[in-house]
Amino acid sequence: MAIRSFFKAIFMLFLITVLLPGCSTEIDNWDYPRSVVSGRFVYKGQPMQLMSTASDATGSNMLQLHQTDGDWIQGFVKVFAKEDGTFTVNAFDGDYYLTLTPGRGPWQPNMDTVRFSLNGEKRDLSFEVTPYFWISDFKDSYADSTLTATFKLEQIVPTANLERVVVELGTTVIVDNLSKAYEKSFTTITAGSHTVTLNLKELSGVEKANLRRTGHLFARIGVKTAGVSDMIYSETVKLQ
Amino acid sequence: MRILIGFLTIALLAGIAGCSTDLDTEPTNILPESAVFTDKALAESVLANFYASVNYGQNNGDYGSYHLLDEANLSYGPATTTDAEKVIPRDLFDAYDYELVRRMNQFLVGIRSSAARAALLESDRSNMEAQCIFLRAWYHFCMARSYGGMPILGDTVFTYESGIDPDRFQVARSTEAGIYDYVIAQCDLAAVNLTSAKTTNGGVANKWAALMLKARAAVYAASIANYGNKLTPTLRTQNWEAGIPADQAAKYYQIALETAEQVIAQSPYALQINEANLGDSFYKATSVKAGNTEVIWAMDRLRPNAVTQFTNFTMPYSHRDFTDGNALGVVLNLVEAFENKDGSSPLIKTTNADGSYVFYNSVEDPFTKKDARLWGTVIYPNAPYRQSPVILQAGQLNKSGNAYVLRTSSVGGRDAQGNLITSINGPVANSDNFVNKTGFLVRKFVDETPNAGLNPLFSEMWWPRFRIAEAYLIAAEAAFELGDKTKAVTHLNATRKRGGIQSLTAEKVTFEHIVNEYRVEFAFEDHRLWDLKRWRLAHKLWNGIPNDPTAQMYSLFPYKVVAQGDPNDGKWIFTKQVSFKMTSNPRNFPLMSYYAAIQPDWRAKNPKLVNNPLQ
Fold this sequence. Notes:
The complex is a heterodimer of chains A (240) and B (615).
Chain A: H1 2-23, E1 35-43, E2 46-47, E3 63-67, E4 77-79, E5 86-91, E6 94-100, E7 114-118, E8 121-128, E9 133-143, E10 146-155, E11 162-170, E12 182-186, E13 192-199, H2 205-211, E14 218-225, E15 232-233, E16 237-238
Chain B: H1 2-17, H2 33-36, H3 40-53, E1 72-74, H4 83-86, H5 98-111, H6 114-119, H7 122-147, H8 176-193, H9 207-231, H10 249-266, H11 278-287, E2 295-299, H12 310-314, E3 328-330, H13 332-337, H14 365-368, H15 373-377, E4 378-379, E5 384-385, E6 388-389, E7 395-400, E8 403-407, E9 441-442, E10 463-467, H16 468-481, H17 485-496, H18 511-521, H19 528-534, H20 538-541, E11 554-561, E12 572-578, H21 600-605
Helix pairs in contact in B: 3-5, 3-7, 5-7, 7-8, 7-9, 8-9, 9-10, 9-16, 10-16, 16-17, 16-18
């Protein structure tokens, strides 16, 4: 009896191994989407610098991509921007619109939508926003462990209140409010041209150790508006 | 292919032929409903499952759940920067379990059936029904504190049958005030039939647990109405699924005050205060079941099936029962929140104005003058655990010429004269395991029982959810907000008295006193996050700015002066630095974290759900 059921089990196993590969069909094995949507955030046609950390858990996607086909709520694709304000996402062909994620971004909230049909690719979309503050003419120099940065700070939205200007240092090219190894705040800065300096020799031992992790050092200026969680940034520069 | 299918069919038929064909046997592993609700023990076992299903939030079954707030940091391994460490997640400790609600509603149908009424003693039956109603209210409360208003299904058991319009299943969100109203009403309903006597170790909910939940729900709703509109007016939805209109605050404060005072006046519970040893009596009030007069409702643990490894992981490594220890370090921020008995600044001075060290005669000096509840909450350097002192020493302060120099060693290291340099417990600022990184260990919920850290039985430490002390603080807060400061200080001084700190007067009391009293009284008891959320203080205190005194977590390292001939020889100094594990993560609570996100797939199934603010 035992021997017979043993052979039966072997036979079943054999049948399963032979049959299983035949069960797979094309229907439940979709290819990933290959059509491309890309664009960038602009203010009056000028590109803007944003946070570079893309984190699903903290919801740092600045945009939501909604598909308009179908009459049920399908949710949306989270669209993350890179530090230079560009975004790229792969999707299936169809009709879409883009909206801002409420509460994200260093700009005035708006309900604008950018509508388009996707067929293969849709590039160079511009998402126009009005930032609270604007950084221009950013220049930096780094000598003798001292970073000197000059920039022009412009207030775009008259009702906005400036909370602080920060110098963020990081050990990778991804430098922002969330991914940083060191931050120095300046709370007395107002609109206008400024020069800020940061002498790395004055940092504490722990802070210096944190900055030595990769052997590379990157820096960025950020501007925080009171009551707004995300900052607007300068370009990221490598200190060397 | 066709031949293979033929073979398979034959094989299957052959297999079936060998089996027993009797399919009408009564299943031996499933009990029919008719049997469950006519037997007290079986009905209670269903209820026990509900009790085990509602452990939401921070708790002492998981020492890691303390890491993200401003009470304690983990100690094992290198400093990390996970997403959750960078930004306190909006779904932290959320509760969303409508399957549980359905099971509870099924239970209510069963326990209300005529068969149950005929078979069970009416007092038992109505008590079990009331316990289920209470647990359902507790679940709704735990959901509301993360999500705001959510669908309220009442007693309906939704069952799908072919052909039913799914529209019936799609219930819209209630308002945030509406869900707190529901919790309050359900607590009133449950309180009528729950026992008013104490239950064993607070493990079974009684009338006072229901009234405490009612008071807590009311004070949450009141403070959201009050501070939500003052501090975060944009955090609401169009139809108040999130946010409560400001004019409702007074109503809820009134309910909270009346209910809390009812519990204080009528319940059999009392604050545990032993004037002879205030610190120890506070520890016993939270962490010792025998003779406890304070805990109203708790998740009780009993060996061998329900135990916690909290003691194994967090006890001093020098005192270890098993393989772990020192896994959780209390941050200096919490220690400094405990006031000094003489009313002086609670901040611990480490350096003088000129930058020189402040010397203390004993390592305990900065702590013994604090609120005695510090002893019952935290193990500070040289404080005893299981009757023997816990040595926390970062190193020595030596003299080199005229200058003082700090000296550390590997853990347990000694100098040529045999004096200890760095203790086996630390504190240290490196990535080693089993050593403390903040200068303080946890005492609350760490078991004094011998071998409570030993595998496999571990600790029977309970998890108190409601203590009578909370009734005093709810009454104090509600009275304060309603303008009755005399009453507020009477209740506030009741709990301040157990720490031996100075009484407050009606002229001096401020909102900050109430905020701080909750913090020190209920440290590690799953209050801090929810309290800061309802007061709308979380984004202000946890602002994500490096070196901000409330956002950055700090540690305090003690060094012993070993310098022969120096007047300070044998004294102690302290250094204050950022907490090692959270070095690059000042606590960061963005506005969006006040309300958890409604998930897109919930909305796909139920389009009536509206999104929360900032999502």
